[in-house]
Amino acid sequence: MGRHSIPRIPTAPxxxxxxxxxxxxxxxxxxxxxxxxxxxAGNVTPAAAPAGGTQIALDTYTRSLSGTLGxxxxxxxxxxxxxxxxxxxxxxAELTKIAPGRSGTFLLPAATATDTTLDLAIVVPSAAVTGGxxxxxxxxxxxxxxxxxxRSLVKINHGAVxxxxxxxxxxxxxxxxxxxxxxxxxxxxxxxxxxxxGTVQPKLSARAWLAGQPVPAGAQVSATDTAADPIxxxxxxxxxxxxxxxxxxxxxxITGLQAWRLGGATxxxxxxxxxxxxNTGVPDGTALTRRNGDWTVSAPGVYSGLxxxxxxxxxxxxxxxxxxxxxxxxxxxxxxVVNVVYxxxxxxxxxxxxxxxxxxxxxxGVTGWGYTLRNVDIHGTVDGAKIFGDNTTITQSxxxxxxxxxxxxxxxxxxxxxxxxxxxxxxxxxxxxxTLADATNAxxxxxxxxxxxxxLTFTGNWAGYGACTVNLQDRPLxxxxxxNLTGNRFGRTSRYGCAITSYPGVSFGLSGxxxxxxxxxxxxxxxxxx
Length: 530
Hints:
The chain is mainly β. The chain folds into 2 domains: 50-262, Sandwich (Jelly Rolls), CATH 2.60.120; 294-526, Pectate Lyase C-like. Helices cover 2% and strands 47% of the residues. The protein is built from 2 helices and 47 strands. β11 (149-157) and β12 form a beta hairpin. The longest helix has 7 residues, at 15-21.
């Protein structure tokens, strides 16, 4: 299914601009932060938007929340990682109570790009002026949980500021650094802009300045990643903060976040429109090259513009498949059109369509571990996506039109149990901002057949159908916890009229879930026994 006439995210002046232009006072962690800068219209910093950039994220944090960051003004729902707490104060997003030697991270999994510019407005904590060092970074091309990313970073140590660019994760590297000639001021806003471009020896750059100072004319640090294993896949944007072991427990406040995709196609974020035919799948006008036969992806890289007539098996990490149609082949046993093998990580499928050329009761859409689906249109399969293990994300995708079979082998001859997403095990799982429709069993089916499930977030989805739309089962284990369902919109289309059903050993959190007409609460059925 192609896309067409996709509008840009609005760039009208936001609440933060009004606060800055009026020299508003922001009180964060007990410190008054004053800025008299005049921001560029629609931007969270006084710097102009990058030439040719398409906005993919914007947040001015005018809401108030505790324990969650909710959804950005544009860019979808946040995920949070690390030991820090989080809250939104009405003026800023905060990573709270960062203890010495500990860190906190938040990401926008739906705000993704390969070539990216990210702006942050950071309030300087007093603890970084009187002590430190404290490290605050903007994450670029981040993996789904922030464990592998490029970054622009400021190190603040007793007020001295050093600007750095590099990579964090399994291979943490500083590619360039520069000591600033000015010093940080407690409570003052510090602006940070970082960019990454290219996949063959990616180029990084950054600049930083304090509120009230002129905007630097260009990059203050720049470097090229010449390593043999650069990050070539697309990734998310986000924020990372770390307090050194020599510091004290502190909090970091971000009053604005904004990101742009450089030179790429626009998309409608799930924050403003349900994923469907106009904002998932292969963008209209994309030229495709036919590839015949099954395909094993055994080398890292970006693979784009393919029409694959065969099953895909991904055995390498750091793989992106985008702008492609994936059709599978003739199945003789259970298989996905795309199969991500155990042990891989940072496998991304985006802006693509998955539809079997030869539909059968054996064929699912995607199966495996450690993968991310973004803006993917999946239809014509038995299950849309199967999750077997950790660090898996499905976001801004459209799973629909599942094919039901009256008799299938893996159900002992009974009819197929169609699920849009079936989770069989894993930790750190994010299902956000998707349209999930037409399943006969459940839009989200969770069991622990392959192993324990924990750290599962189901947020901001448009979901319906199934017996009950969400089915949470702890079996074959005796308990399941750390499950959160927030801000979802449920259709009144399930067979039994229930949005959620759960079994006795399941512990889960609920907030902000409504029916599609905005009414609530939604119906939750708690089973008496498993």
